[in-house]
Amino acid sequence: MHQAPPPLESPSRLYFDRLSDVIETLDFAEMDHAIALVHEAWQSGQQIITLGNGGSAMSALHFITDWNKSVFMASGKPFRGRSLLDNMGMMTALGNDISYDAVFEQQLRQIAQPGDLVIAISGSGNSPNVIRAVEYANEAGCITLGLSGFDGGKLKALAQHSLWVNSHNMQICEDLHMVFGHIVMQVLCGVLVSAPPVSIEDDEKRAIAGLNRRARTMRRHAVGE
What we know:
alpha/beta; 54% helix
């Protein structure tokens, strides 16, 4: 008589359990500080520039899509976000004519201004083109924020500010980097008004409160995607 095989553990439950375990290790003060950096760059009219490779490239693009569209719709204040992944011709030209390690740094040399916020995303923290871009951004007077996972790699130490996911699971690192992007959008759109970024000054808080009141009729459309 054949015995029935043991029941399979739910793969979705297992994944979410692992994700929950990593969430418990997050430094929420570090994340709130990173949110504040984006808020302050937006308020001061600086560029917010994102970059990354592979899945992190898609996160970099997703950030700017959400922030440019939704923050402006909710507030009426332009969000000067741009990703260095948008121009495939530029990417391939720089990669072919110089090197792939230079594809982000060379673009920053043309567009970055002192005070701009450069958000560099690398799960391992060691992508050579990301490291090279952050080195240049630091030298150029930009503010640099590194989003990393694993042990943080070179990026965690090199960037002026860091948001680190303590996991060696790349997909979970990418999940939580995307969560950061969505929290930024909801904070700047006024959806998470009970939890403003920690470094916003009182007068800025009052300005945001007024902005939120004017934006209430627009929020459903802004976050409806």
